[in-house]
Amino acid sequence: MSRNDTVRGTTLLASSVAMALAATTSIANEQALEEVVVTAQKRADSLQKVPIAISAYTDEDLARMAGNVMEQVARNTPNVYYLQADTMKSSTTRIRGISTVAGTAGTDPSVGYYLDDVYLGAAVGNNIDFYDVERIEVLRGPQGTLFGRNATGGVISVTTRRPTQESEGYVEAQLGNYSLKRYKASVSGPIVDDKLAASISGMYVDREGYLFNDNLKSDTNGIHQYGGRVSLLFTPSDRSEFLFNFDMRKVNQTAQSQETYANNPKATLSFTHRNFNPTDRKVFGGFLGKETFDGWGGALNARIKFDSVDLVSVSGYRSHDYYVEGESDQVPFGVGRNFDPESVDMFTQEFRLESTGEGKLRWIGGLYYYNHDALNDGGISIERDLLVLFGGQGLGALAPLLGGSRGTTKTESWAAFGSLDYAVSDQWTLSLGGRYTNDKKEFTWVQKDLEAIFGDPILGGTGRAAGNDSWSKFTPAFTARYQYSPATMFYGTASQGYKGGGFNDGSGVPSQQSKPYDPETIWNYEIGVKSTFMNGRVRLNAAAFMMDWKDIQVRADDPATPNSFDPRLTNAAKAHSNGLEVEFTALVTDALKLELNGALLDTGYDEGVIPTGIGRGIPLKEFTRTPKYSYSVNAEYATTAGESMDLTFRVEFQGQAKTYVNVDSRDPFRSEPGYNLVNARVTLAGKNGGWRTSLWGMNLTDEVYRISAFDLYNNGLVGQYFSILGAPKTYGIDLRYDF
After folding, report:
1. Domain 3-738 belongs to what topology?
2. What pLDDT, on a 0 to 100 scale, did the predictor assign at position 395?
3. Could you tell me if 124 and 89 are in contact, meaning their C-beta atoms sit under 8 angstroms apart?
4. What is the pLDDT of residue 612?
5. DSSP of 146-191, one letter per residue?
6. Alpha-carbon radius of gyration of the chain
7. Which backbone phi and psi does 282 adopt, to 5 degrees?
8. Residue 455 has what pLDDT?
9. Long-range contact list for 539-543, CB < 8 A, 24+ apart?
């Protein structure tokens, strides 16, 4: 982090905290902030008692969020970045600078997503729509003991609403510009009083894309999805309960169109370039793109209570088929299309024993099993225009010529874990945890190459590869908690995270595919404070951390061969991530609520290179999508509108520093300046509930900023640098009725 960035970010964070603390001097001691209960340690605890850097969002918090819910959760959580990319497969979550290295079906993520305690796996599987959700918890830093499975960066834990013993439900509609239509509904109630309850919920969303294809005169990168969930809660006695959830989701939408950020005039197809404005949200390709997803999952959560211990079983099965196809060139001249489908079947089983009671010793112990079968296809097809250009009418009759690869990965893993909390005194509690994990992967890969119409084969030669390997790791955690007062707790922790090794199941070079990459590990050293004061009207939580990251899995297209797409995945680096996080909430008056979330982050590679096929790599420097500072400041004012209505005004300011959108340090276009966003919402609701109406706007200043890039600038044929822009100004209305 440069000195100017450090000073600027520290000054911003310090001044914001100072202003927020100053505002508390006028607080009237009447109402208090609502207590937030989380399950970050596999048991229900107050957020303020859990010695983890964690942010939690209730269903009421989520109701204030328009646009992509996960993106808004990330913008309001310190040091969390969510990339809403041009496809589901490319969308990733980054916590404290740590993110998934590749979105292929067989590659493990760095941030673990859990739905009702069930692990969701890699990028496509964890790309879910949030509806009928009770709570989202974001755990920052490695969670190597109780969650464990590939949680080097952290965990996103989603808890859905449980069936109720009283009949209730809601219907909700969200309408907005870009022809947005989002509908949600749920009904819940008893089937057998006090024994069996059920709920049914569903969602439907349709929206035009933020990009307009000026060649085909149609929008692209739109959304068209629907899904549903059925839940059954069976409580045969006061000592046992069984919760069954089944959900499904279908997607059929346009995808994978990208803005042209820069054109290379030396490229062979430069005569076809038409997009010279990188911010006009117009593209000129000959194909709108296609993305489909057909997925479902089931889970059974069982709890049986004994005199001093609970037995918990969590069984989960997830399955999906995914297809995505887009253009490789974004020009009206037919060059090529790329496709990247996958199929995944996954089973997980966890058994836990949890101590109960209020004694000095609390403990959790368990076993975990994970089975994951993944098929990842990928490749390109040559379109007729290009074949005609290079080979005449005869070759044009052969279009399309297909080429690509198919990688299959079978993963089997088991783990044993445990955690002990011992109250040494009324103030001091010491915790010791650990997890032993064994991973085994079997891999096969085949490639069907293209005809060598450009000279060298584009994908590097036809070939086959196979391999298998296994890895084991014990990851410990040590925590000390000091309860300074009933309202203030200090903690310190040292914990290790682990992510398994594997094989590159995407496109690549045959000679490299059979070579496994090793696991990566990370140590997190953290101190923090959680405090509530002013009679419960002010909450201030802060954490400072240092993380040491080794054997980092790095994937990048080989920069030594710009005319081929041959990404390599290997262990190539050591890195660090150090930072400070602050979360502040205050009821300044019974009507005015202030929220401040701020973060400073210093990340970088200490050694390592982007691997190339010619031996000498490109030095790794900065992390991508990790701003040196970020913040969100929210103000909410509630008043009345007549005798029977409540009126609430909310305004949000979100900002971040400069980021990098490409890992290649030689890229002259990789830097993206910092930016600021403004959101607002006005809500009118009945005093006694029942109905609610909100007018909202996101990115009201219509800030234009890049969130991702794909570099084909030095490709001799295409010669373009592509980028993905963040969402433009959007606005709309929410209508909801509870019954």
Report:
1. Maltoporin; Chain A (2.40.170)
2. 45
3. yes
4. 65
5. TT-TT-SSEEEEEEEPPP-SS-EEEEEEEEETTTEEEEEEEEEEEE
6. 26
7. -120, 140
8. 35
9. 539/33, 539/48, 539/583, 539/584, 539/585, 539/586, 540/582, 540/583, 540/584, 541/48, 541/53, 541/582, 541/583, 541/584, 542/580, 542/581, 542/582, 542/583, 543/53, 543/140, 543/580, 543/581
Quote the mean pLDDT of the chain. 88
Distances 526 to 50, 53, 148, 417 between C-alpha atoms, Å: 14, 9, 18, 22
Share of the chain above pLDDT 70, in %: 89
What are 155's strand-pairing partners? 112, 139
Query: Is 402 a residue whose pLDDT tops 60?
Result: no
Q: d(Cα 188, Cα 201) in Å, to the nearest integer?
A: 9
The H helix count followed by the E strand count for the chain is 5, 41
Q: What angle do CA 525, 527, 529 make, to 5 degrees?
A: 155
> Token pair for residue 536?
């419960």
Confidence of residue 4 (pLDDT cuts 50, 70, 90): low
Distances (CA, A) of 332 to 164, 284, 390, 430, 617: 55, 6, 17, 64, 35
pTM for this prediction:
0.91
DSSP code for 26: G
The residue among 454 and 384 whose pLDDT is bigger is: 384
What is the C-alpha separation between 7 and 25, in angstroms, rounded? Answer: 27
Compute the distance between CA of residue 265 and CA of residue 272 in angstroms, rounded to an integer. Answer: 10
Cis peptide bond prior to 400, omega within 30° of 0:
yes
Whether residue 606 is predicted with pLDDT greater than 70 in this model: the reply is yes
Q: How confident is the model at residue 563 (pLDDT cuts 50, 70, 90)?
A: low
Q: What is the pLDDT of residues 352-377, one digit of tens each?
A: 999 998 889 999 999 999 999 999 98
Pairwise CA distance, residues 217 & 255, whole Å = 16
What is d(CA 118, CA 297) in angstroms, rounded to the nearest whole number? 10
Residue 60, classified by CB atoms within 10 Å of its CB into exposed (0-12), middle (13-18) or buried (19+), is: exposed
Q: Which amino acid is at 262?
A: A
Element (H, E) at 613: none
Q: At 511, give phi and psi (nearest 5°).
A: -65, -20
Cβ contacts of residue 44 below 8 Å, gap of 6+?
Answer: 37, 38
Q: Give the pLDDT confidence score for residue 149 in this predicted structure.
A: 85
Distance set, CA 630 to CA 305, 408, 633, 650 (Å): 44, 39, 10, 20
Within 306-341, strands assigned E span: 309-327, 336-339
Which residues does 506 contact at the CB level (< 8 Å), separation at least 6? 102, 104, 107, 340, 376, 378, 405, 407, 567, 569
Q: φ, ψ for residue 530 (rounded to 5)?
A: -130, 120
d(CA 561, CA 261): 21
Residue 453's pLDDT band, with cuts at 50, 70 and 90, is: very low
Cα separation, 667 vs 419, in Å, equals 46
Q: 169, 186 in Cβ contact below 8 A?
A: yes
Closest CA to 714 of 556, 561, 554, 509: 561
**pLDDT tens digits along 72-104:** 999 999 999 998 888 998 888 999 999 877 778
In angstroms, the Cα distances linking 113 to 155, 341, 687 are 6, 21, 36
Query: What is the rounded distance in angstroms from the CA atom of residue 514 to the CA atom of residue 467?
Result: 5
Query: Helix, strand or coil for residue 268?
Result: coil
Cβ atoms of 611 and 650 within 8 Å: the answer is no
Asked whether residue 736 carries a pLDDT value surpassing 80, the answer given is yes
Q: What DSSP character marks residue 620?
A: P
Task: Look at 22-36, 183-197, 276-290, 332-346 and tell me which has the smallest mean pLDDT.
Answer: 22-36
User: In three state form, how does the secondary structure of 411-438 look?
Assistant: EEEEEEEEEEEEECCCCEEEEEEEEEEE
